[in-house]
Design a protein that fits this description.
Layout: H1 4-20, H2 25-32, E1 40-41, H3 42-56, E2 63-65, H4 66-83, H5 88-109, E3 116-118, H6 119-133, E4 140-141, H7 143-158
Antiparallel strand pairs: 1-4, 2-3
Helix pairs in contact: 1-5, 2-7, 3-6, 4-5
Length: 159
Amino acid sequence: MTYRLPLAALLLAAALSVQAAPHEGNAFIHDYDANHDGQVTRAEFDAGRLARFKATDPNGDGGLSEEEYVAEYSTRLEKQLAASTESDEKKAEERQRQIRQAHVRFGVLDKDKEGKIVQAEYDASGTRAFAEQDNDKDGTVTQADAAAARQLAARAKAN
């Protein structure tokens, strides 16, 4: 019984930290910079998110099941791991950790706990992610924004 509160706090902290993990700085720009000009406008981001939502919803029912969500992320993860120079052991550890986090992210994003992420929940997550990356709040994520986000993250880790 005394472990419930610390465990809940740990799970919440993990969920909040993994929510941002796939959208850090340069990776964010790489993932959403459709015209390859080194920055991401809100329109580019929204178009990319919509395309990813549709690709993640292969049955087209308008909601992402946990299986669909994790499968889409797993596909992207495998591409990243294939390009990695880490050992097979390190890749296996990273795969296990990232897939576990994908399940946690699903639980965080499924706000109404209906067992699927609907477009509105997905969009709300995207709005938060873009706002976190757009450091100067001008509607465009640039390398300067990415650098500022890295500095803030480093300061947060140091404290």
